[in-house]
Amino acid sequence: MSDSTRILEEMNDRSREVFRRVVEGYLDTGDPVGSRTLTRAMSEKVSAATIRNVMQDLELLGLLDSPHISAGRIPTQNGLRMFVDGLLEVSDPDITDRQKIDATLGDNSADVGGMLDRIGSALSGVTHGASLVLAPKHEAPIKHIEFVSLAQNRALVVLVFADGHVENRLFTPPPGQTPSSMREAANFLNAVIEGRTLSEFQSVIKKEIAARRQEIDTLARDLVENGLALWAGEDDSHDRLIVRGRANLLGTDEEEADLERIRTLFDDLERKRDIAEFLELAEDGDGVRIFIGSENKLFSLSGSSLVVSPYMNADRKIVGAVGVIGPKRLNYGRIVPIVDYTAQLVGKLISDRG
């Protein structure tokens, strides 16, 4: 049993209602909720003094906080976590929201990237947040690989897949590479990679390098290892993340500190950093996951929340993710079903396209 579950179970009905109404009021308005407001909203008649005592107890538990000299309270990050885990009521997505997402599917183009871009824009518009769509990697078996030297510090890797798809990726080779060492590296790779996908190749190549280190010279081995890091890390997913609606993260009344945190978020989004970790977060479990504030490893400096759900291909394998990022004061009850619906829709579309 988690600590938040235990605390919820130990609360009496009055404390639980006060806590829930403070969180819901804060999520609705962004303002601290005071005892006078709650006396008018509580299901039982209770004095403002009694409510203040309950609020103080909840503050001692680390669930509520007093942001200023105001008598009102707002939820802490721990409080929001407990509310999301134990009290959040989630219903089906609104029919109008579903229709706006569905409207992006009118074009039956085979361009998956364009389709995901339109879905991301619609998701951003519906949620008034920034949407994140992690497109699936190309998982067809590889037929051939080739390295092409372009300059002393620039090279091109050409990947030819068995289904005819071709990808060209620029990278910076290790110092000292020569055309002959690149050819030797390509020959080594082609001997072991054909018929395998990039995902399969990542583990296979490490074993092959360990078993055949004496068969390639040091420079070619460095090239292979450097290229492998690029494929498995940043460059592998650099073009896979689609970000839409960043302007929705800016309002008009933010304090300077809030604006600075949002600028940090923009920098993160612009550089598309840590995308591999984004997918790793989504792969930890099926269904929607919510990361609040510092729990959000991707954008922890922005004081934001991330609602993310993986989507699967026809083989029920997680191949990408969709999500919404915004302030901690998100309408979680509305955002969660929208993200879930969008992820299931994208999964179906990816599966239908094979």
UniProtKB/TrEMBL annotation:
Keywords: Repressor, Stress response, Transcription, Transcription regulation. One of its GO terms (molecular function) is DNA binding. Residues 115-336 form the Heat-inducible transcription repressor HrcA C-terminal domain. The keyword DNA damage does not apply. The keyword Transcription applies. SUPFAM superfamilies: GAF domain-like, Winged helix' DNA-binding domain. It comes from the Bacteria. Gene3D superfamilies: 3.30.450.40, Heat-inducible transcription repressor hrca homolog, domain 3 (3.30.390.60), Winged helix-like DNA-binding domain superfamily/Winged helix DNA-binding domain (1.10.10.10). Negative regulator of class I heat shock genes (grpE-dnaK-dnaJ and groELS operons). Prevents heat-shock induction of these operons. Belongs to the HrcA family. This is Heat-inducible transcription repressor HrcA.
